Amino acid sequence: MSNMIKLIALDLDGTLLNSDHGISEANKQMIRAYKKRGCRFVLCTGRPFIGITAIIETLGLEGQGYAVSFNGSVIHDLASNEIVHNRPLPFQDLLEIDRLSHAIGVDYHIQSTAGIFTTNHEINVHTAFDSWLNKSRINVRKLEELHSTAINKVLFVSEPARLDQKIAEVPDYFRRKYNLMKSLDCFFEFLDKRANKGSALNVVADRLGILPEEVMAIGDNDNDVSMLAYAGVSVAMGNGSEKAKAAADFVTKSNDEDGVAYALEKWAT
Question: Sorted alphabetically, which Pfam families does this protein's record hold (predicted)?
Answer without folding.
Answer: Hydrolase_3
